[in-house]
Amino acid sequence: MPDFAFNVLESFGTISEADNGWKKELTIVSWNEREPKYDIRSWSPNKERMGRGITLSKSELIKLKTLLNHLPI
Question: Which of 3, 36, 55, 59 suits 66 as a labelling partner, its CA being 20 to 30 A distant?
Fold first, then answer.
């Protein structure tokens, strides 16, 4: 697997936390020194490891917010 770099620039909060301390968070991450994106994924307690997740541009996040606001919850 090729090496990649990431930099967590901001964390907006925890969505959930597993018993092992990993937290699913909404963050802004720069992957391989590219433009930062919004990101939802699980992170180890020290943010050295991550699980699978989803990365969104600002326009995609706005669309997701609109869709979530219309859910009948």
Answer: 36
- Name the strands in the sheet holding 6-17, side by side, starting at the edge strand that comes first in the sequence: 6-17, 23-31, 37-43, 50-56
User: Whole-angstrom Cα distance, residue 23 to residue 45?
Assistant: 7
Please, which residues bridge with residue 31 across strands? 6
Global pTM?
0.87
For residues 7 and 46, the answer to whether their CB atoms sit within 8 Å is no
Rounded Cα gap, residues 48 and 35, in angstroms: 20
E-only strand ranges, the chain: 6-17, 23-31, 37-43, 50-56
Q: Which residue type is seen at 32? A: N
